[in-house]
Amino acid sequence: MALIGIIDADLIDHGTRHPNLALMKIAGYLKDNGNEVELIYRSFDAAKDPKYSALYMGCVFSFTKVPEEIKALPNMKVYGGTGFFPEGDGPQLPYDVEHHKPFYDLYKPYVESEIARGRKPNYFTDYMQYSIGFTSRGCFRKCSFCVNKKYDHAFRHSPVAEFLDADRPFIYLWDDNIMALGQWEDIIDELEATGKPYQFRQGIDLRLMTDHKAERLVNAHYHGDFIFAFDHIEDKDLIIDKVQLWRRYSAKICKMYVISGYKSQDEHDIADVFERVKILMTYGSLPYIMRYEAYKKSPYRELYVQIARWCNQPQFLKKMSFREFCIANQKYKKDQTTNCVAYQSMLDFENKFPEIAKEYFDLKFDELNIYKNQYGYGRRYANKPLCSYCQKKGLCWNCLLKDKKKLLQAYLSKQVDLECLRYKNAVCSVDSMLVAKVIADSLLETPMNELIEILAGVEDLEKPNPETIPQFSNLEDALIMVPDILSKFVKSGTPMNFKDIGYYLERDDKKAKTNSDVAMKKYGENHTKFAALVDLAVVSKTDVRAEVTLSEFGKYFVTLDHITQKELVLKLCLRIPIIQNYFLNGCDIKQIEKDLLVLSKTTQNRRRSNVNFVIRSIEEGKIL
Known about the structure:
The protein has 624 residues and is α/β, with parallel strands linked by helices.
């Protein structure tokens, strides 16, 4: 039985956190054909050992240094990879090897030896916890700085089952441009069917994003952050549109690769980088600076490094301007008689180009970010849509206020949300209190059966999910008392939390008395979330950091008398998907049971009585 050596050139030369997929495929194929394989990872000289009947070597990075004598060894069968052939013109794996399941244990001896030396196991998660592969290959963009220029289109490469290891908890994909593939959703379906969290490591082409793609991806079993790219300032308008489209569905901060030092390495490129960073900050996104190798030739080489240090560490970017970051580095320096590299590089550039420094060095994420306050818990979308989208669909407030039926359809189905008027990029200039009054008056003057008929005309209703199925102990506490409490205690602009709301609810309701702070918080949480479901409150987070304020509609609601409030809240409950489905399906109790299936069995039992209580209250026309 032959022993074959597998050489990971990147690992030997400078170390890498990623296993070489091609080498694992080669190793798997060789093993299944009766050979023994061994990873060579300590030194290139180890490859000279005569015990190896053959050698295979892979290299990903062009800066990896490999001795020529190693490539020339007589038993070297093949060496390949973009490190040796950056234009993609090197030897390709034969079909049977390319589509062979990777031998994931190839790197096990290396990982075990490193952990034995004291390295932390979590450093090696890519080696030990992920199934790895390409479900598609190719990209039509052929960016000049990218090594993936071999193909001019995206095409299906392999099924997920080809590289899936059932014992590994995660999956990551090296697909070049999954969004450019016509069958992208088939791949998502395959990945979802595994039940394993997954991620696309090459990033996702935001420029190809659509509403359907965004909604599907945001609700996917995705692992970690979605990462996009903003490489060309010429794409500014498109990126601004697409990041807003994405943020409509995603409450999470976007992360974006930003290439630097590629087009040039002068002050114009520095300004270009900062301009892209500014745009991303404005739209609630985090830049990740990728330095092209040529930056090292720049007279501002050190400034490139400091920009990357600032941007690539979110705890700094979110809290400090670039200037503050450099000053903080200087303060940290023990010897204050000289300037640290960060501070000096900033000063040198500012002295030479004061206008660029004036425009960009004092930008702060928190001041620019238009998504600082989002829609929050229980709403159909995470943030406002593009105003152009609403204008195209006839969903802008100026249009809706002229059409009562369309207004009620859009509001009850949550296609529109009054919270959109709080955003800096909102085009509609209407007053939120005026809109809230029109909505309230329209609901109050329309009989319940007509509202249900109006809802029946909506083609795209929200589907029930665990977040939109209410849980409460006292309906009046949730729908009358919560907004009342918020109106009294957040006038200063300071949000409340669940525990505070629970305290005030209990103080006024003897039946709600609990015996602990935990129970008090839970009581406040359940009733506040229900208030958010019917647009009376905004819950920005749902953990211990939860911040609760009155919604734009809630601000008008609290001006009404309690009799009117009690009539209105029953109609607001038609915003809840499981309630909508019950009435739209002929008041069929089986529909409730079907919708409750999104919950665990124990949770179904708790929520079922709550849903039925709301329905009985609506049917009897009063809060029971």
